[in-house]
Amino acid sequence: MSGEIDIGPDTSIEELIESYPRSVGFLMDRGVVCLKCGEPVWGTLGEMIAMKGLDIGETVADLRAFLEKAS
């Protein structure tokens, strides 16, 4: 991976996991349900973050930083 991580609140969970499999652990640590967690949930990253009552902007920014470090 090179360049900026292209994810945002409107990124689908399916697309996120396909493009950035390491995001699964990050999301699980925050209680955000995703496909590999055993729940067939379809929706956007923003929707899943909001369901957990987390700050969407902050969580997406933290996820981007995490993925950039991991690449």
Would you kindly provide a brief summary of this structure?
With 71 residues, this protein is mainly α.
User: What are the low-pLDDT stretches, counting only 5+ consecutive residues below 50?
Assistant: none
Task: Categorize the overall geometry.
Answer: globular
Secondary structure tally: strands? 0
Number of domains: 1
Sketch the topology as an H/E string, one letter per element.
HHHH
Structural class, please?
mainly alpha
Q: End-to-end distance, in Å?
A: 6 Å
* Tally of DSSP helical segments: 4
Strand content: under 5%
How much is the radius of gyration in Å?
11 Å
Share of helix, binned: 40-55%
Walkthrough of the structure:
This protein has helices spanning 13-19, 23-29, 45-51, 56-70. The mean pLDDT is 85. The protein has one domain. It has 71 residues and is mostly helical.
